[in-house]
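[step 3/7] fold_predict: job queued, chain A
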Amino acid sequence: MVEKDFEEDDPFELVGVQMQVENVEHIEEMARTFIEEFLRMGWSEQMIIGLFQLPFYQGPHAAYRILGEKKISTLLREAKSKVR
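[step 4/7] structure written:
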């Protein structure tokens, strides 16, 4: 793998942001985005649910805690039918 130093204007530099979510609709949209992204990378349903369950992944896990496994599973099924 090629390694290089990041430059000030490097668009590929990892950036983390903290956000406050004001309502459940925003959390659902965030969860949908995570789910679609991982489906497009070829992850299985079990792998994606597992990701949401792990506290290490703070964004997906926050959605999992707030929405619950049933809602995450529903969003996953809906996204799966669209992404194919």
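[step 5/7] annotate
Helices lie at 24-40, 45-53, 58-67, 69-83.
Residues 45 and 53 are 12 Å apart (CA to CA).
exit 0
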